[in-house]
Write a structure and sequence with these properties.
It is globular, with a radius of gyration of 26 Å. With 642 residues, the chain is α/β, with parallel strands linked by helices. It is built from 20 helices and 25 strands. The structure holds fructose -6-phosphate.
Length: 642
């Protein structure tokens, strides 16, 4: 949810921390703040609103004192916020306490010597606050985080009183003591004015990675924060504390026992996390979809035609024993799971259910060792999905993750992983993650079918080769988007837009509606086309735009004809029909007010193409309505609370 970054090295920390926050801003943008250790003092600044407000408040100070010296041509000033070489920064998605200056992080101890930033929720904060207030602490914010600053200062004071030597180790020891008292989900970073040259971090149920550079180290919610400085990273495990100085990384568990992180190399570079000339990250990410799909397919087939997963802690026998598949995911990832259900059941004949991860564990699903739970998550940190996964593991089910983020929690806790190689997705609205999740789902369906002997290697290879044609077909779709952009300008004043589809077109309709809601703040609903007549058709008024996702006439003729009938039904009630159909499908033309063709493709794979015009439509409508496409209101990229 929130983005956090820390740095220790020889260079001024402020610029590095601000650059990191800029890359993490997609995680939350309600407020931002920094704390930099400057000699024996902490310098902090924080502001409600986007990072730009913080940068404005910092003014020229963010460039360091060199500039101030040049301008003043006087004696050098005391070390300023722009000069300290250790610091932390935070960009917030508010949970406890509104998005105000006061509630922005960092939060300080009473004496202003300790600063803390936090991602997650401290569930027992009320008890801790009451305890601290009884000791005379006055709280200055409404957050659950502030209590950690006071607890950390108290732990440091106790350790100092007990004669523990001052220095970085003391900061780590104090953090461990505090973590043992906290319940909930947290990533914490802290600095102490009296311990320059050290940043301490801790994590439970919330992400934290370390970046390794020569004579400098980084801590961050995800690697994009430090990717322009280093591609060597360490993933922390659950319940670990990490202490970084310029020369060292020390990891322990909460009791102080030495622990190990997992080293990994990041296989994309800083340019992948830049806009590269596009107006929005979302447009760039839509344009990257052919490559993302190609990369996700790359190297998946062995010479004998078998599909390779990235990390498999499941045997083929485990997969043969599977008698039921549950897919758990949220939002867009859930829609990819809905498509997967059609493919997995068709190819494997194993019953497959798709569940909203946020509902899964509350309804007590029937799971056992022969259940395969597929957890789909772009970020790998979505708390609802993580909790569903843990519930599944408690019931002894096997868990296979589909994830885009190496080093994240969901793949780490799963029995097997298939990574989508989509590269960083910065725009809050998911696009290339959706398409690559679809590819991963198809591969898993084929893998299951092959291991269980339902499909032969050549049959699998035939579908994989159809998948391999998708990048080119996607490029053709993207090259033909000008009419969609025009249409978007036309539809930007509509009161509502409805989306309908059948079979795999139904999740595509849901996804189109979700994109429009989250970006354009318009009433938009997706329906199974056959359900319309059971109620929602009453929403249709003269001119109501209805986007109709039409299946291939070559695949299942009856399905196609039924959707054409549904289009006629809505048109008869005055709807303006926007039809997405396959090239050569002339039967739909008489009923389409606007017709968007996509290349011919097998029915089950069609969502890889039909989704794209809907992404462009939502993005352009939002832009025409003057909204911030990359950072829609009330949302954050990674939802690490339940
Ligand atoms: C919508 C969107 C969200 C995410 C959902 C799950 O555009 O991005 O609905 O799909 O929050 O996120 P991940 O995939 O990170 O688990």
């Amino acid at each position: 949810m929130c983005g956090i970054v820390g740095y220790v090295g020889a260079r001024p920390a402020l610029g590095i921390v601000l650059d990191g926050l800029r890359r993490l801003e997609y995680r939350g943008y309600d407020s931002a703040g920094v704390a930099i250790v400057c000699d024996d003092e902490l310098r902090t600044e924080k502001r409600a609103g986007k990072l730009a407000n913080l940068e404005k408040a910092l003014g020229d100070e963010r460039f360091g004192s060199t500039r101030a010296v040049d301008q003043a041509a006087a004696s050098p000033p005391a070390i300023g916020i722009g000069d300290g070489t250790a610091g932390i920064g935070h960009t917030r998605w508010a949970t406890h306490g509104g998005p105000t200056d006061r509630n922005a992080h960092p939060h300080l101890s009473r004496d202003g010597r300790v600063a803390i930033i936090h991602n997650g929720i401290i569930e027992n904060f009320a008890k801790l606050v009451a305890e601290l207030e009884a000791d005379g602490v006055e709280f200055v914010s409404d957050t659950d985080t502030e209590c950690v600053a006071h607890l950390l200062a108290a732990a440091l004071a106790d350790l100092r009183d007990a004669g523990e030597p001052d220095g970085p180790q003391l900061l780590a020891a104090a953090m461990r003591r505090v973590c043992q008292r906290l319940e909930g989900a947290f990533t914490l970073l802290a600095v102490d004015a009296g311990i320059p040259g050290a940043v301490v971090g801790a994590r439970r149920n919330s992400p934290l990675v370390v970046g390794r550079g020569p004579g400098e180290h980084y801590l961050a919610s995800d690697v994009s924060a430090f990717i322009e400085h280093t591609r060597d990273a360490v993933e922390l495990g659950q319940d670990q504390v990490v202490l970084i100085t310029a020369d060292s990384i020390e990891i322990t568990d909460f009791s102080g026992a030495p622990a190990l992180g997992r080293d990994f190399h990041i296989d994309w570079d800083a340019s992948a996390a830049e806009k590269s000339g596009y107006d929005y990250f979302m447009l760039k990410e839509i344009a990257e979809q052919p490559q993302a799909v190609a990369d996700t397919l790359l190297g998946r087939l062995t010479e004998s035609g078998e599909i390779m997963l990235d990390e498999v802690r499941l045997t083929d026998q485990d997969l043969r024993d599977v008698d039921k598949v549950f897919i758990v995911a949220c939002g867009t990832a859930y829609h990819s799971g809905m498509v997967a259900k059609y493919a997995i059941e068709h190819w494997t004949r194993i019953p497959c259910e798709v569940e909203l991860a946020s509902e899964f564990r509350y309804r007590d699903p029937v799971l056992d060792r022969s259940t395969l739970v597929v957890a789909i998550s772009q970020s790998g940190e979505t708390m609802d999905t993580l909790m569903a996964l843990r519930h599944a593991k408690e019931q002894k089910a096997r868990v296979l993750a589909i994830c885009n983020t190496n080093g994240s929690t969901i793949p780490r806790e799963s029995d097997a992983v298939l990574y989508t190689h989509g590269g960083p997705e910065i725009a809050v609205a998911s696009t290339k993650a959706f398409l690559t999740q679809l590819v991963a789902c198809y591969l898993i369906g084929l893998h299951l079918a092959q291991v269980r002997g339902i499909k032969y290697a050549d049959e699998v290879a035939a579908v994989v080769s159809q998948l391999q044609e998708m990048p080119d077909k996607l490029r053709r779709v993207l090259d033909a988007m000008e009419p969609v952009r025009e249409l978007a300008r036309d539809l930007s004043t509509a009161n509502q837009v409805l989306f309908i589809g059948r079979h795999v077109g139904y999740p595509v309709a849901l996804e189109g509606a979700l994109k429009l809601k989250e970006l354009a703040y318009m009433h938009a609903e997706g329906f199974a086309a056959g359900e319309l007549k059971h109620g929602p058709i009453a929403l249709i008024d003269l001119g109501t735009p209805v986007v109709c996702v039409v299946p291939s006439p070559a695949g299942r003729g009856m399905l196609h004809d039924k959707v054409v009938s549904n289009i006629q039904e809505v048109r008869a009630r005055g709807a303006r029909t926007v039809v997405i159909a396959e090239e050569g499908d002339l039967a739909v033309a008489p009923y389409a007010d606007d017709l968007i063709y996509v290349p011919r493709t097998p029915t089950l794979l069609a969502p890889l193409l039909t989704t794209v015009p809907l992404q462009v439509l939502a993005c352009e409508i939002a832009a025409a309505r003057g909204h911030d496409v990359d950072q829609p209101r009330n949302l954050a990229k990674s939802v690490t609370v339940e």
